[in-house]
Amino acid sequence: GPGLKVISTLSVGFDHLALDEIKKRGIRVGYTPDVLTDATAELSVALLLSACRRLPEAAEQVKSGGWTTWKPLWMCGHGLSDSTVGIVGLGRIGQAVARRLKPFGVRRFLYTGSGPKPESAAEFGAEFVPLTRLAEESDFVVVTCALTPATQGMCNKDFFGRMKKTSVFVNTSRGAVVNQEDLYEALAQGQIAAAGLDVTTPEPLPTDHPLLSLRNCVILPHIGSATYATRSAMAVLAAKNLLAGLRGEPMPHELQL
Amino acid sequence: MWYHKPAINEELLQSLPNLKVVASAGVGTDHLDLKLLFSYGVKVSNTPFIVSTDTADMGMALLLASSRRLLEGHEMAVSPDTEYFPADWLGVEVSGATLGILGMGKIGYKVAERAKAFEMKILYHNRNQRKKEEESAVGAVYCKKVDDLLQQSDFVLLAMNLTPQTHKLIGKSELELMKPTATLINISRGLVVDQDALVEALQNKVIKAAALDVTYPEPLPRDHPLLKLKNVIITPHIGSATKKTRWVMMEEMAKSKEAGLAGLLIPREVL
């Protein structure tokens, strides 16, 4: 309606907003960066570990009786020790992920994005590389970038084709950054070892979607920021943004259009 | 030998008069009667160091999966009955929470290193206090009394050896000392916990949840109550389960056996 003055979103992503139209109408936008960084980074690492150590599969074997006796190579996953981790999008969340992964014995961090970020990268000794090299050299790929026209469908057949057979792919950004059909093929053909997705297109996936049938794909219901503490903080911030906008005052976190 | 088979007893040793060395996979030797073996002049080796990193990774994986409700979330995401994801479906943040580590050996210390990066407060109890530099490197605070650790921790992680002293260390009273919002994580041995007391504590919400890579026995009988509790994650003793680590374990076992047969010094001898 014509009376709309402020949009306050409970997220750090703003890919769901038609920014051109919003700007045209002089509507202000508030969002919630920073407060959700830790929770989302934590969930990304949790998802990575669940995927590379096959937690849902293993837990299911315990319940179903598939675990009969112990065999040396049964249920083996992939360790982080001595690995190369590639972060797609070394923003706040990407950095927080790298920080948490460092003590797991990661030997090398790579990152990619629209440009190098030397100050952010220094903490991890991370090397700025093109997307293709990141795919080729990483044992673990974690996608934490924003969804933009440039990143839409970026993780596609070419990307997965370059990844190692033993590698693990984790996406906690937006579903549309990934070409889901290509991801399915890569997993089904054994081009990559496993995947962990907190985000898909759509959410939830239709009940007959092929990704749901894969044992080596862990899917979560978009819970990156889903903790009591973080959602409360986001809600308070979103309310403050909204009220400030309605009063014509500066917002705690306003999106620059 | 892998896991705890074959069971080494008097009968077996008498039937193998030429047995010189037993190479055991893993670091634990609780399944071996060392006194008996040594009395027959048999040497024993294990694979102590190589399992530490993967097992510590597993400890963190279980801690995170439990706190952020990963397995439940996965089931919801893939279930044909799910129509939408409820906005108020929430977990608890690990960042900033208090982790109490019982048994700060190689594995316990590696867990502390990982937990520090999540900004967790770390308490620990060990037979011997660690050096000051080791403590400050991970920000770990020593608790002389196990009870103090239990009362203050949001997550209690068990990483000690199974010995007569640690057998059923975590029983009814220990569980009652823990916070009702606390989670028990076990990556050591099932028998360190009084399993029946644990079942009761979980059923009566004395503690919030448990995540166990080890139980007693393994696997649990099909009708065991632990398999039915919603607030329990059980994995099939996969702490060291990566191909890389398992291959190194096999190499170490082979080297120990060769050395033992040749009468040379055994690399990973258990004394």
Provide an overview of this structure.
The complex is a heterodimer of chains A (about 260) and B (about 270). Chain A has about 260 residues and is of the alpha/beta class. Chain A has two domains: about 5-30 and about 225-255, NAD(P)-binding Rossmann-like Domain (Rossmann fold), CATH 3.40.50.720; about 35-65 and about 75-220, Rossmann fold. Chain A has helices at about 20-25, 35-50, 55-65, 90-100, 120, 130-135, 155-160, 180-190, 230-245, and strands at about 5-10, 30, 85-90, 110, 125-130, 140-145, 170, 195, 215-220. In chain A, the strands form two sheets. A seven-stranded parallel beta sheet of chain A has the order 5-4-3-6-7-8-9, sandwiched between helices. In chain A, strands 1-2 form a two-stranded parallel sheet. In chain A, strand 3 (about 85-90), helix 4 and strand 4 form a beta-alpha-beta unit. In chain A, helix 2 crosses helix 4. The longest helix of chain A has 19 residues, at about 230-245. In chain B, helix 6 (about 130-140) links the parallel strand 4 and strand 5. Chain B has helices at about 10-15, 35-40, 50-65, 70-80, 105-115, 130-140, 145-150, 170-175, 195-205, 245-260, and strands at about 20-25, 45, 100, 120-125, 140, 155-160, 185, 210, 230-235. Helices cover about 35% and strands about 15% of the residues of chain B. In chain B, helix 3 (about 50-65) packs across helix 5 (about 105-115). With about 270 residues, chain B is of the alpha/beta class. In chain B, about 45% of the residues are buried. Chain B is globular and about 65 Å long.
